[in-house]
TrEMBL record:
Signal peptide: none
Family: Belongs to the thioesterase family.
Protein keywords: Hydrolase
Protein name, UniProt field: Surfactin synthase thioesterase subunit
Organism lineage: Bacteria, Bacillati, Actinomycetota, Actinomycetes, Pseudonocardiales
Sample GO molecular function, one term: hydrolase activity
Gene Ontology biological process: lipid biosynthetic process
SUPFAM superfamilies: alpha/beta-Hydrolases
InterPro entries named among the record's database cross-references: AB_hydrolase_fold (IPR029058), TEII (IPR012223), TesA-like (IPR020802), Thioesterase (IPR001031)
Pfam entry (one): Thioesterase
């Protein structure tokens, strides 16, 4: 059974007990909470920035991995539902965008206080499908795919660290690649989609289909860059998040 201790799942790099809004960050496949440390720095103390730490990486490296998106979403939903209620924006990159969507859907259906907005980055819409089997490749093949995504250069320079991370990366690739298209799944919160114009994992057309998954407002913004465009475009992405958080002060909750 998955350990639901909030102390293991949630990181607050810059605690902001007086904040009136919250930003919850969902890492990408194989990613860890520390990827979002610069985001926490940029938005604290104006927002309570909460970053998820998945099992099987960094300080949780000895814990069993979660093998599918639904199990991930159920665990995260339970952890976030126990948090003190604040107007909240979800921000997820790649696999994190799927998880943000699935958790938002569960929270909107009675599991807890849902987010007011979802910012989905670097991921095609939940109803789209591709025949992807990267998780079945050997270690060299998997590593080659990771490198094509132009991930954080510093992390990829250390071969030993990367290879130590391969079990978590392969596990998360499997979770994403076996995720069944959810064409009829819809959330009420607005969805903002951010993508890189050279991202091999999501075309503009696939990203536009996120609008089929919300009854609220939808917008898409394209940036120069590949799958990890948000590293090079950090200032612009943070500006997008600031705008989403600012709307929380102006828009009453529908729940």
């Amino acid at each position: 059974m998955t350990d639901l201790d909030p102390g293991k799942w949630l990181r607050r790099y810059h605690p902001a007990p007086g904040a009136e809004v919250r930003l919850v960050c969902f890492p990408h496949a194989g990613g860890s909470a520390s990827f979002y440390r610069p985001v926490a720095t940029a938005h604290s103390p104006a927002a309570d920035v909460v970053v998820l730490q998945y099992p099987g990486r960094q300080d949780r490296h000895r814990e069993p991995l979660i093998t599918n998106i639904d199990e991930y979403a159920e665990a995260i939903t339970a952890v976030l539902a126990a948090e003190p209620e604040l107007p909240t924006v979800f921000f997820g990159h790649s696999m994190g965008a799927l998880l943000g969507f699935e958790v938002a859907h569960r929270l909107e259906h009675g599991a807890g206080a849902p987010p007011r907005a979802l910012v989905a980055s670097g991921r095609r819409a939940p109803g789209t499908a591709r025949d992807e089997r990267v998780h079945l490749l050997d270690d060299d093949g998997l590593l080659a795919d990771v490198r094509t995504l132009n991930g954080a250069a510093a992390a990829l320079e250390d071969e030993e660290i990367v290879r130590m991370s391969l079990p978590a990366i392969r596990n998360d690739y499997r979770a994403v690649e076996t995720y069944p298209p959810r064409r009829d799944r819809v959330v009420d919160c607005p969805i903002a989609v951010l993508i890189g114009d050279e991202d091999p994992k999501s075309t503009v057309d696939e990203s536009l289909r996120w609008k089929e998954h919300t009854t609220g407002a939808f917008r898409l913004r394209t940036f120069r860059g590949g799958h990890f465009y948000l590293v090079q475009q950090a200032a612009a992405v943070n500006a997008e998040l600031t705008e989403e958080l600012s709307t929380l002060h102006r828009t009453p909750s529908a729940h």
